[in-house]
Amino acid sequence: MLYAVLCYAHEETVFAWSREEEASVMERLYAVQEPLAKAGKLGPVGRLMPTTTATTVRKGSQEPLVLDGPFAETKEVLLGFYTVDVETLDAAVAFAKELSAVNPGSSSYEIRPFHVFHAGYLKT
């Protein structure tokens, strides 16, 4: 089954890392991802840019409103995601626990079953 593992953290912490800190964190995260990648069970992984770069389209009473920034203001924001193809929710939880163990600071991982409606046309 496909699962989306959504990564939430304090963006002011993550985007304040030095290049060395960033490289160290990414190296540890890649080590956690590697077994799933080698098994062909890791799908797209992405990091979202800061919420200051976001644009929100919000349904209005007449026409949709286009707003600068994220829709919700929270301390922890969605900073990225993983897609994993694992047999059980327990396996997805285990993956998220491993990510959490190597990711400094406070972060949380939300896991949801993922259904592909349309694979899209983008080629990577």
UniProtKB/TrEMBL annotation:
Which ranges carry the YCII-related domain? 1-114
Record's superkingdom? Bacteria
Checking InterPro entries in the record gives: Dimeric_a/b-barrel, YCII
What SUPFAM superfamilies has UniProt attached to this entry? Answer: Dimeric alpha+beta barrel
Belongs to which family?
Answer: Belongs to the YciI family.
Q: What is this protein called?
A: YciI family protein
Origin species, per record, is Rhizobium deserti
Lineage at the top is: Bacteria, Pseudomonadati, Pseudomonadota, Alphaproteobacteria, Hyphomicrobiales
